[in-house]
Amino acid sequence: MDGAPSTQRLDISHYRILALALPMTLSHVTTPLLGLVDATVIGRLGEAHLLGAVALGAVIFDFVFWSFGSLRMATAGLTAQATGAGNRHEVDVTLARAFLVSAVTGLLLILLQWPIAAMAFSMAGASEAVTEALSTYFFIRIWAAPFTLANYVILGSTLGRGRTDLGLFLQVAINVINIGLTMVLVLGLDLGIAGAAIGTALAEVLGVGLGIVVLRRLGSNPLAVTWAEVLNRAAMLQTLAMNRDIMIRNVALILAFSIFSALGARSGDVTLAANAVLYNMFLIGGYFLDGFATAAETLCGQSIGARDERSFRRATRLSLGWSLGFGLAVSALFLIAGGPFIDFVSTNPDVRAYARDYLVFAALTPFLGAAAFAFDGIYTGATWTRSMRDLMVIAFVAYAGILLAAGSLGNTALWIALLAFLSARGLGQFILYPRLARKTFASLA
Question: Is 29 exposed, middle or buried (CB count within 10 Å of its CB: 0-12, 13-18, 19+)?
Answer without folding.
Answer: middle
